[in-house]
Design a protein that fits this description.
Elements: H1 2-18, H2 39-47, E1 55-63, E2 66-75, E3 78-85, E4 89-96, E5 99-104, E6 109-112, E7 135-143, E8 146-156, E9 162-169, E10 176-180, E11 184-192, E12 207-208
Parallel strand pairs: 6-12
Antiparallel strand pairs: 1-2, 1-11, 2-3, 3-4, 4-5, 5-6, 7-8, 8-9, 9-10, 10-11
């Protein structure tokens, strides 16, 4: 369960971090920002702009050498990640107006988290305010034996450490297929802005599990 929680928190917070300053359109952004000619910039400003838009993503993530299928929902401050754990079965991690919850669907039970996550502990993607510091390089490289176009975003923090995020696309197209950071890879299957509020509600027949 610890692993699925780490995955959930990391993946949910990448979108929260991208969304910082999300009310600004391209015309309001700093002239020195990388151009929307870069496909990655358009994805960050539009698809991943959860400050303005709801987001549903279906993807497979590689985390600590294991693969995990994930459905991720974000709408405002609400988040949900559905996946499966070998020990606990089908699970969801939900954040709503009442707090953070772990749902175990096989037993119809849930646990409420008592320790909120510090976003400063997550460093997967940078926010809009830091985007002028990106250096973007492009090219082609193989990922798992398949050749893709890539756009690599590099930012050097105040300690001189490079933060690197790479977007992969089918060659010659805008079809975004993967995202890679220092810690994980996401293989993108489906993206939509259609998210119903009901996905963030704990079913009434689920029982709270207490220690």
């Amino acid at each position: 369960m610890k692993k699925i929680l780490l995955v959930a928190l990391s993946l949910m917070l990448i979108f929260a971090l991208v969304a910082c300053g999300g009310g600004e359109g391209p015309a309001d952004l700093d002239e020195d920002m990388p151009s929307d000619d870069y496909r990655a910039m358009a994805i960050i400003r539009d698809v991943l702009n959860v400050g303005d838009n709801a987001l549903y993503m279906s993807f497979t993530t590689e985390f600590e050498n294991d693969l995990m299928d994930v459905d991720l929902y974000i709408k405002g401050d609400y988040t949900r990640m559905d996946s499966s754990d070998p020990e606990y079965g089908a699970m969801s991690v939900i954040t709503n107006e009442s707090g953070d919850f772990i749902l175990m669907h096989d037993t119809k039970s849930y646990i409420k988290s008592m320790e909120p996550v510090d976003p400063d502990d997550m460093d997967f993607l940078l926010n809009d305010e830091e985007m002028p510091d990106y250096e973007v390089t492009t090219g082609q490289e193989e990922l798992k034996g398949t050749l893709y176009d890539f756009e690599r975003l590099v930012e050097v923090d105040e300690d001189g450490v490079e933060n690197i995020t790479t977007f992969y696309f089918e060659p010659g197209t805008d079809n975004w297929v993967a995202l890679k950071s220092e810690d994980t890879i996401m293989y993108v299957h489906k993206i939509s802005s259609d998210v119903d509020d009901s996905v963030f509600v704990i079913p009434s027949d689920y029982q709270e599990f207490t220690f």
